[in-house]
Amino acid sequence: MKGETVIISCVIFEVASVVEPAIFLRATRLHLIRPMDRPGTRNFRSYHEFHNEVRKQLAERLPDCEVLSYPAKTHNFTEMLRLVLGLLKKEKELDNGRKEILVNITAGSPEYSAAATMASMMIPDVKPFNTSVFEFTVDGDRVREVFYEGDRPIGLAKKVNDPTPIPVYKVDMPSEDIIEGLKIFKECNKKTDRNVIKNLENTIYWKYSSQTDQDTNKKEKSKQAKTMYYRRNFKEKWFANGWITDDGKLLTKLGEDAVATFYHKPPEPEKISKENMAN
Fold first, then answer.
1. Of the candidates 94, 127, 180, 267, which lies 20 to 30 Å from 211 by C-alpha distance?
2. Cα angle vertex 158, ends 142, 9, to 5°?
């Protein structure tokens, strides 16, 4: 029997970014955060129309999906974090072991996206996802019509309020040793424990040390100790993070992402001449 697929999302001025992932993932329940009702404000009617369009399309195209809406201050980071964490906690408490909990970080306000990403990292087994745009509503020549004033680029926001600090919650970065070790693991043609250890031993990330002599029995014990050290300090952590496959022979997509993300030197900034700025 198929388990539940629960998605948390936010709607402001998007429809496809909310509806299409829910249909693709066959959501059984969608928690939909929307802007609070503020009659008389400039975008009050538009907010309602986008929210209603999302619900209408889901009712037609995914009729078995339960859609629950939550009016909220979508541009308030603290409220977004509180709401998303509350929804995640509630879903986890009701989890029967067959539930997949997903968080759509693409649609909605920047504050929602930041809070949703952070909340997803705080609750175990929650999977955030994003959706890239295949086709834009405003494209080509209309970009200049909508986002420019005369020949000057303005963008979606013409004026902004003063910067508002947001709360900081620590998300630990994986240690350099296990990431650099994973890079070495990836480059090894033969991913046996012995071969990976051999490549790790020549780096600063291998911190095992043992006093051995020429006695064969002690050498064998040293090999076993090295293998245990490798498994405990590297391999088990890679498994725990989902970075290598169950057979220990390949990197998973998460492992590839970890290798591509952490402990790389930043690129040099591009050199822009005054002539380029004038064009």
1. 180
2. 80
Whether the CA torsion 225, 229, 232, 237 is positive or negative: it is negative
Per residue in 129-154, pLDDT (tens digit) is 999 888 888 887 788 888 888 888 88
Instruction: Quote the CA–CA distance of 239 and 262 in Å, as a whole number.
Output: 17
- Quickly tell me which residue has 């969608």 as its tokens: 30
Q: What residues pair up with 129 in beta bridges, in sequence order?
A: 104
- State pTM to two decimals: 0.76
Contacts with 168 (C-beta within 8 Å, 6 or more apart), sequence order? none
pLDDT tens profile 230-277: 999 999 999 999 999 999 999 999 999 999 999 988 877 677 776 655
DSSP per-residue letters across the chain: ---EEEEEEE-SS-SHHHHHHHHHTT-SEEEEEEEPP-TTSTTHHHHHHHHHHHHHHHHHH-TT-EEEEEEE-TT-HHHHHHHHHHHHHHHHHT--S-EEEEEE-SSS-HHHHHHHHHHHHHSTTEEEE----SS-SS-TTHHHHHHEETTEE--S-SS-PPP--------PPPPHHHHHHHHHHHH-SS--HHHHHHHHTTSTT--------S-HHHHHHHHHHHHHHHIIIIIHHHHHTT-B-TTSSSB-HHHHHHHHHSS-PPPPPPP--HHHHH-
* Neighbouring residues of 15: CB distance < 8 A, sequence distance ≥ 6: 50, 53, 54, 57
